[in-house]
Amino acid sequence: QVQLVESGGGLVQAGGSLRLSCAASGGTFSTYAMGWFRQAPGKEREFVAVIKWGGLSTYYGDFVKGRFTISRDNAKNTVYLQIYSLKPEDTAVYYCAALQARQITVARMRDYTEYNYWGQGTQVTVSS
User: Fold this and answer.
1) Dihedral sign (CA 58, 63, 69, 72)
2) What is the C-alpha radius of gyration for the chain, rounded to an integer number of angstroms?
3) Rounded to whole angstroms, how far apart are CA atoms 95 and 102?
4) Are 38 and 92 in contact (CB under 8 A)?
5) HEC profile for 28-78?
6) What is the per-residue pLDDT across 31-68, written as a single tens digit (0 to 9) for each?
7) Which one of 28, 42, 108, 110 has the largest count of C-beta atoms within 10 Å of its C-beta?
8) Rounded Cα–Cα distance for residues 57 and 6 (Å)
């Protein structure tokens, strides 16, 4: 059983930056693809980014446009999401998730239903 704990959210002005962290425990972190999703009130959960096991392959949601960077430190069992140039529309609860599958397509990694474990989420609020 894998436990995921996000941190780093908060209230920030438009144009600012945040780094979200997700600490994992209870599993072999380096065997999981790690994803970030977000969900705004009244909207569906949205794919933000995913990073594969070794950290060399990353994929992003269509809206990202270079403002988000996902990274991982397997020695620290932690995945990060750096967000630049925050916009009010980035306001949401951000979740990290772990996916255990060695053979999986990018399309499936973008699908939140494929993920095995989820954190509790961290709120990001961007004021205009």
Assistant:
1) negative
2) 14
3) 22
4) yes
5) CHHHCEEEEEEECCCCCCEEEEEECCCCCCEEECCCCCCCEEEEEECCCCE
6) 999 999 999 999 999 999 999 988 789 999 998 889 99
7) 110
8) 22
Amino acid letter, 126: V
Alpha-carbon gap, residue 67 to 17, rounded angstroms: 9
- Nearest CA among 33, 24, 77, 27 for reference residue 51: 33
Q: Answer whether 93's CB lies under 8 Å from 64's CB.
A: no
Q: Using an 8 Å Cβ cutoff, are 40 and 20 in contact?
A: no
Tell me how far apart the alpha carbons of residues 16 and 8 are, in angstroms, rounded to a whole number. 13
Give 111's pLDDT tier (boundaries 50, 70, 90).
Answer: very high
| Contact between 22 and 9 (Cβ < 8 Å) | no
User: DSSP code of 93?
Assistant: E
